[in-house]
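Hi there, hope your week has been kind to you so far. Do you reckon you could talk me through the fold, stretch by stretch? I've dropped the whole record in just underneath, so have a look:
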Amino acid sequence: MNKNSADKTYSNSLAAFRQLFRPVARVLLRDGVTWKELADVAKQTYVDVATRSFGIHGRPTNISRVALLTGITRREVSHLRKQAEEAEPVSTGHMNQATRVLTGWYLDATYSHNGTPLPLPATGAVPSFESLCTTYAPSVPGTTLLKELRQASAIEQRPDGQLVARTRYYVPEATNPKQIQRFGEVLADLGNAITHNLHRKAGEPPRFERRATNLQMPASVVPEFRDFIESETQAFLERVDAWLSAHERHEVVDEPGIRLGLGAYWIQDLSEDLSDKRTPR
């Protein structure tokens, strides 16, 4: 591969990741995940994938090669591997700026009594919400934190104006944990299929992955399209499920079982995504 081709592949990979990451970023931001926490998970995952998938002759990748592939120092690679083996959490806690304020409210004796947060005036001398924010989140305006925490129902304001903490952690828009798990599984299934097709060996069949889209659709047809898709796709998936059930591995068969199936998903760009795609780069 010549330099121009390599540069193009590199830039296209980053552009593709940017598109892939947008829906992930929406979920993480809604659930209060900070950039630092995301970066820790990304680093751990980079090391894990480099270790498992880039070894020679099927063996796990050694530390030096992982460091070379990822750009992470050998010392940190070793630490991250050990951390993964011991099943330690990647992040030290859900400690974004808003959560620091809430935690201080619960734990700092100036703002609490025996672990119970005191009602605080919005402004004024210590103890107040203003002084609490100055202590635990000096880089963020107190008015911004107040608005955000009230919107997230983490605090509320009493009729007398005093602010009361309702939760010790800040989660902007908490999502159902099972829905979050499914979100990761669906993205992983689709990503694994596409990755297989990108890097499959000669003679290895591709995994089925098709789309049918049109950029000139009026928004008024969305309900009709939804009815059509739910009817046609549901019927097809039921046939797929019946086929899978009929071909299930039985206990008497000395053959390992694998996960096999087919997924279907709705395509509709958000306005912000369309705007992003149309911006010259």
Summary: Residues 88-95, 274-281 have pLDDT under 50 and may be disordered. The radius of gyration is 25 Å. The chain has ten helices and four strands.
